[in-house]
Amino acid sequence: MPTDGNSTRHLTARRLLAASLATAAIAIAATGTAVGTADADTPRRAHVEVLELEVHNGQYEAVDLGPAGPSLGDLDVYSGTTVKDGRTVGRGGGSCQVVQTDAAGTTAQCLLTMEVDGGSLTLQSLWTKGSTAPLDMAVTGGTGAYAGARGTVRFWDIGTPNERARAEIRH
Q1: Which residue from 167, 161, 166 is spatially nearest to 57, judged by alpha carbons?
Q2: What are phi and psi of 51, to 5 degrees?
Q3: Which residues are CB-neighbours of 108 under 8 A, at least 6 positions away?
Q4: In whole angstroms, how far apart are CA 158 and each of 57, 135, 139, 141, 145?
Q5: Cα–Cα distances in Å, from 4 out to 64, 69, 93?
């Protein structure tokens, strides 16, 4: 892998993104504001939790498979924690695997699992590496108190010290 300054910055940003995605997802259901809403398609009231979180990166490893540099199958594997009001509220981890490389950039499919008080949550999305746009990840399910959970987690400032996430979870 090249060691010029641009490649080093790209690798650092990849590491921070991967670790922060896992970290932010971790505490999505650990604490938050519960809001009752009526869902038009279901007779029962959905329970919605809204969380505003800081992301703290933990462990990270880039696995460069195939040719040097971005190529199909490359992995970013990570873990971390999320923080609310100065307190760690969750932990988790996941991976982003490169599924497409072309002139538009490198696209990875990201999968996260987080442990939270009362159960766990899973998240999934596609991400264009290096994008500065917010990233929305789907809440695809959960266990325990979060069995059948759905919703969205939006991440901003990925890979920076100011990274944050807003989770809206219906269960």
Answers
A1: 161
A2: -125, 135
A3: 76, 96, 97, 98, 99, 126, 127, 129
A4: 11, 8, 18, 23, 28
A5: 17, 13, 29
Return the structure tokens found at 62.
Answer: 């880039």
Rounded to whole angstroms, how far apart are CA atoms 111 and 96?
6
What is the C-alpha separation between 37 and 135, in angstroms, rounded? Answer: 25
Residue 127 CA, distance from chain mean position = 10
Per residue in 55-96, pLDDT tens?
888 888 999 998 999 999 999 998 888 888 999 989 988 999
Q: HSE of 151 in the Cβ direction (CA atoms, 13 Å)?
A: 24
| Predicted confidence (pLDDT) per residue in 5-26, tens digit | 444 444 444 444 444 444 444 4
